[in-house]
Amino acid sequence: MFxxxxxxxxxxxxxxxxxxxxxxxxxxxxxxxISAVYAYKNEHSTGFAMTIGLIPAIVSVVIMVVSGDIGxxxxxxxxxxxxxxxxxxxxxxEIAVIFLSMATGLLIGMGFVTYAALxxxxxCAAILLYSRRADMISxxxxxxxxxxxxxxxxxxxxxQIDSVLDxxxxxxxxxxxxxxNMGSMFRLDYKVTLKPGIDQKDLIDQIRIRNGNLEVAIxxxxxxxxxx
Length: 228
Hints:
There is one protein chain. The chain is an alpha+beta fold. It has helices at 8-11, 17-39, 46-66, 70-86, 92-109, 113-139, 157-168, 200-211; strands at 144-152, 169-180, 185-194, 216-220. The protein folds into two domains: 8-138, no CATH class; 144-220, Alpha-Beta Plaits (2-Layer Sandwich). A four-stranded antiparallel beta sheet has the order 2-3-1-4, with helices on one face. α2 packs antiparallel against α3 (46-66) and α3 (46-66) runs parallel beside α5. The radius of gyration is 27 Å and the shape is elongated.
């Protein structure tokens, strides 16, 4: 009886043209699915998405060629490591997807096509769930901002600026202050959480009244949780 979870090389015999085409075709199909999941709601380059889709097929062919040769296997592993560390640094998600594609290719190269498809399906589902959770967390932080304010050197910002921020924010924290323009002005940096429904233009106008119409910027708070 044919066992879908057995290696196709053990079930159908030694590798031949049919087994080779099944392996490569399955790898390309699964790679396309992994690439589509990665591209969903993620900023990406076309070249990287294509590479993710091709890695399973490439790895599976290499594993089929060196099957049973320990020395060749070690050499291939070293080549993969060289390529990985010579490439440009990527985000944590990109590295995870690269390893997923490589692991899928390894399974297919050993003939376990069904296990490879099942593994890719489980991990892709996990990626979508984690992405959904990250979107929900980001939505809850959309009122987190960074405010940069330029003031004259003789302005008492503790009374003039802080009082305005207290009216428009849930919480605030001064994270930096430095002199600019040859010491004639100061640049104040605040991390704040705006109150719901606040008009940012109105906040800027109120600050400009107090800082003599000097520069004011409200920026999105950068999140660095996706990198390594």
